[in-house]
Design brief:
Helix content is about 40%, strand content about 20%. It has about 300 residues and is an alpha/beta fold. Strands 3, 4, 5, 6, 7 and 8 form a six-stranded parallel β-sheet that branches. It has a four-stranded parallel β-sheet with strand order 11-9-13-14, sandwiched between helices. Strands 1-2 form a two-stranded antiparallel ribbon. The model is unreliable at about 1-20 (pLDDT under 50). The longest helix has 20 residues, at about 165-185. Helix 2 (about 45-50) links the parallel strand 3 (about 40) and strand 4.
């Protein structure tokens, strides 16, 4: 009897030792031996994913928000107990000094290919990294860009932090909202041509094929005129924008230049003022947190649909 009991104990120990969570992060499989207890998120949209999953107690801070963005009241309340460890991109020293054990970031969202902070450089300090799915294109991983990428991130975070049920409840709710939005669209006629204006006057910075706004535009019944731009976010030419003559322009609002200033630039530019969207004053302003992968994408799709298909 005593032998059997010890066997059972050893079996239990073996089971516990093998109990790890493995998630796919871009092209890597990342193993977690336990739930992170000192997590850091980068940027406003990634941080909001952590907040909607109720992970504040597992976080020790965030990075990369105040350097570009301002928190609204809802976000301020969510992170009021947490310090911002770096206004823009963190250094390895910052993350190690904070004793982080997990970093939720992405390529061009807190990490740069070939930069100082990468999954490989942080691994030696015991910091696991989960990469934002939309950003995987920057490490050569081409994938269909839909809102499923945002759901995938929530689902993987749910697995990493042991809140799978909470993640699935959120995802189901978002999917139901999106289904209702699409069902309510009266999309008779051709899909409106849409351009995303992020920033830049000499050359525009915009969302290409692999950026989440392209998926949001398609969900709302439009077409991104830069869908053939095989990048995520990047720079194109104003000549290409004029040639494709967008009927609606999405203004991404963040940073020092306001959305109104961006619209005034377009209205006052002799080369751009003749664009259909400018002539007809068809602008939609999305906050940065709405135009990057995160929980606010669904409400943003609803607003785009209203703008694309006015009654």
């Amino acid at each position: 009897m005593k032998t059997l009991t010890l066997s059972a104990v050893f079996s239990l120990i073996g089971t516990v030792a093998l109990a790890q969570t493995i998630v796919q992060s871009c092209e890597r499989e990342v193993a977690f031996e336990g739930v992170p207890q000192a997590a850091v998120s980068h940027d406003i949209n990634l941080t909001e994913m952590m907040l909607v999953l109720g992970l504040t107690d597992q976080m020790i801070g965030y990075t990369g928000i105040s350097g570009w963005n301002k928190l609204d009241e809802e976000m301020r309340a969510g992170v009021e107990e947490l310090p911002e460890l770096a206004e823009r991109y963190p250094t390895t020293e910052v993350l190690v000094g904070a004793e982080a054990d997990f970093f939720f970031a992405g390529w061009n969202y807190g990490m740069r290919v070939g930069g100082e902070v990468t999954p490989e450089t942080l691994e030696r300090f015991g910091i696991n990294v989960y990469e934002l799915s939309e950003s995987c294109i920057h490490v050569g991983m081409e994938q269909e860009v839909t809102l499923d990428l945002m759901y995938n991130d929530l689902r993987n975070l749910g697995a990493i932090f042991g809140v799978e049920e909470r993640a699935e409840t959120l995802i189901s709710g978002y999917q139901a909202e999106l289904t209702e939005i699409i069902a309510g669209l009266n999309t008779e006629g051709e899909a409106p041509r849409v351009f995303v204006y992020d920033s830049g006057e000499d050359t525009p910075f915009t969302a290409g094929h692999f950026a989440i706004p392209t998926a949001m535009i398609e969900a709302a019944g439009g077409v991104n005129i830069m869908d053939d731009f095989r990048e995520s976010w990047g720079t194109v030419s104003w000549e290409a924008v004029v040639e494709r003559d967008p009927e609606v322009i999405i203004i991404v609002n963040y940073g020092e230049v306001t959305a109104e200033q961006k619209m005034e630039f377009l209205r006052n530019s002799p080369a751009l003022s003749g664009i259909s969207a400018v002539q007809n004053n068809r602008f939609v302003v999305l906050e940065y947190v709405e135009a990057t992968p995160g929980p606010r994408n669904i409400n943003a799709v609803a607003r785009l649909a209203e703008a694309f298909w006015p009654e």
